[in-house]
Amino acid sequence: MRKMERLDIQKIESYWINHDENKKRLKYREWELLHSRHNADDLNANLRGNRISNPTEQKAAALTDDELYRNLNKIVQSIEQIYEQLDEDLKTIVNMRYWDKCRRLALERDSYLCQDCLKQNILTPADMVHHIKELKDYPHLSLTLSNLVSLCNGCHNKKHIRTGRKEKIYSTKIKVIKSKANEEKI
Q: Band of the pLDDT at 6, cuts 50, 70, 90?
């Protein structure tokens, strides 16, 4: 087995980070190959000729003949296979490691500014990155850059109140309990 070089590891990491985007590109390429006017004409021409007469076989042939589709398919399947082989602890470690990278990319993309404040023409530094679709409902989107938005603390707190999260909010005030001693009985 060949030893992985540093560049190989970096390439796999980039595939990992862009996994959801690669899946979208793969689906789009499939649609493009199967529904484009050019391929439809080819499929009809093949029906008249003696080549492939079964439409399903024609579609399979169109996909396997396309180099971009084959490469994207290999990348997506390989990353999914690697992830499936990990145990739960390693999956957690991997997600935490790539969360920092995704968080940084989201902040850089948004120029370290709160996007909600920016919509109101207010420049506020972003303190955190928020999952647009809730992490507990969509864990598979946890590392998807398009599901992340940079927010300041105030806007982030407003987002969670609007989404109906039922978490208890703790007060920072000190509560003083008044009490008096029990009466002594002799």
A: low
| Rounded-to-integer distance, Cα 157 and Cα 22, Å | 32
Tell whether pTM > 0.70.
Answer: no
**Cβ neighbours around 78 below 10 Å, total:** 12
* Percent of the chain predicted with pLDDT > 90: 25
For residue 73, is pLDDT > 80? yes
Residue 89, classed as helix, strand or coil, is: helix
Q: Is the four-CA dihedral 134, 137, 141, 143 of positive or negative sign?
A: positive
Tell me how far apart the terminal alpha carbons of the chain are, to the nearest angstrom. 86
Tokens (6 digits) for 145:
């850059």
Q: Could you give the C-alpha distances from 113 to 99, 104, 122, in angstroms and in order?
A: 19, 12, 9
In angstroms and rounded to an integer, the radius of gyration of the C-alpha atoms of the chain is: 27
